[in-house]
Design a protein that fits this description.
Blueprint (H helix, E strand, L loop, with lengths): L7 E5 L2 E5 L4 H15 L9 H4 L5 H4 L2
Length: 62
């Protein structure tokens, strides 16, 4: 599964970054089963869209 593949992600410079498995099938699974839902604001209990306004906090601290 995509989760067991040691895929990882994070935020750098206000941009989401994801390191996904190398096989096309695993990348498709990661998008279809995990990431796509996280970019849908209706996904509950939480999603990446809710925290997007905070992605530029590093710029406001200066």
């Amino acid at each position: 599964s995509a989760v067991q593949s040691r895929a990882t992600g994070g935020v750098a410079g206000g941009t989401y970054l994801f390191a996904l498995p190398g096989s096309p099938g695993a990348c498709k699974d990661a998008w279809d089963e995990i990431l796509e839902r996280q970019f849908d604001y209706r996904h509950r209990p939480c999603n990446f869209v809710e925290i997007m306004p905070r992605l530029d906090e590093h710029l406001r601290r200066k």
